[in-house]
Amino acid sequence: MRESLRLGGLLPYQEVEEVMLRLAQVSISKASVWRTVEVYGEAFQRLEAEEQVTAMVTPAQWHTTVTGEGAPRMGVAIDGGMMYIVGEGWKELKVGTVFEVTMQPGVDPESKEAMAMPTAQTLSYVAHLGGPTAFGTLLWSDARRRHWWGAVETEVVGDGAAWIWNVTSLHFGDSTQIVDWYHAKSHLVAAGRLLYNEDDPALQRWLKTQERLLYQGHARRIGDSLLAEVASHPQVAEQLRAEAHYFLHHHRRMQYMAFREAGWVIGSGMVESGVKQYKSRFCGPGMRWSRAGAERLIPVRSAILSGRFDQRWEQITGSPPN
């Protein structure tokens, strides 16, 4: 049961049938794998729900603070990806990851010099097929499990979606908030293409200058300059205003040089990778999911991605891992 459930979180059920027969000489139908996920996936769901209830206890009632040299720096990153639900259409799967921030050998993206760079380590993942309120509680429960309140400093990384920062304000309000560097750069590219033709050499010169300003923390200046272009570009005035307001609204979350110097991760690649790993299981060719079927498998997939599958299995069955 355990291994068919684990494989069901990794592979399409038909492939689980083939792998079990080939590698373990165990004959199990894809229907049996589906029933295993139905039973134990629901148990994983109940366990998540119980932890969310516990997570809503006030911090003073449960947390143990670790201070001094042994206290970690921690972060969360938040993103979303679309998956197809039969009878409903495309729905957003909200994904979050909790991580520790450590300094690792790397290359500075601006100077190209080798130096210690902040890196996300020891990742754990959660996902929710639904609204931000339930997702926020789920993410907070995982952060609580990871002893979030024992961290000396914390950060949240996400794109510009309003729901991400609403979740952040509710559960992680004391954290340093950072708009993903690469997402912000994509808005620069979008703005530049409103001002210049794609094949105009001036576009690349403009992007290079604006990217430097963005990294140095001048997002407000960029927003103001885009607003100043509105009158001379009436055909794209609405789009220019939208890009300008993006930088003006998030400028406090775009102090990239300062964030990097403070040792914070400024990219959300860790959660974007997580979204891709969920989608690789749920969005393969020909896959069709009912809401119930997807929701049973999501916590199994989360446990696998977080390296917690055996622990979860022991919690619901009382069986020790191999």
Give a verbal description of the structure:
The protein has 322 residues and is an alpha/beta fold. It folds into three domains: 2-55 and 290-317, no CATH class; 67-175, no CATH class; 183-253, no CATH class. It has 13 helices and five strands. It has helices at residues 2-10, 13-24, 30-55, 132-145, 162-171, 181-195, 201-215, 219-228, 237-249, 256-261, 269-282, 291-305, 309-317, and strands at 73-85, 89-107, 114-129, 153-158, 176-179. A five-stranded mixed beta sheet has the order 3-2-1-4-5, with helices on both faces. Strand 2 (89-107) and strand 3 (114-129) form a beta hairpin. Helix 3 (30-55) packs across helix 4 and helix 4 (132-145) crosses helix 5. The radius of gyration is 22 Å and the shape is globular. Residues 60-67 have low confidence and may be disordered.
In short:
This protein has 322 residues and is of the alpha/beta class. The chain is 52% helix and 18% strand.
State the total count of DSSP E strands.
5
Taking strands numbered 1, 2, ... along the chain, how are they ordered across the largest sheet?
A: 3-2-1-4-5
Strand content: 15-25%
The residue fraction in helices comes out at 40-55%
Contiguous helical run count? 13
**What is the string of helix and strand elements?**
HHHEEEHEHEHHHHHHHH
Average pLDDT works out at 91
- Overall domain count: 3
Main sheet attributes: strand count, strand direction, barrel closure: 5 strands, mixed
- The best one-word shape is globular
Give Rg in angstroms: 22 Å
Q: Alpha-carbon distance between the termini? A: 13 Å
The computed structural class is alpha/beta
Stretches with pLDDT under 50, minimum 5 residues: 60-67
Oligomer: single chain
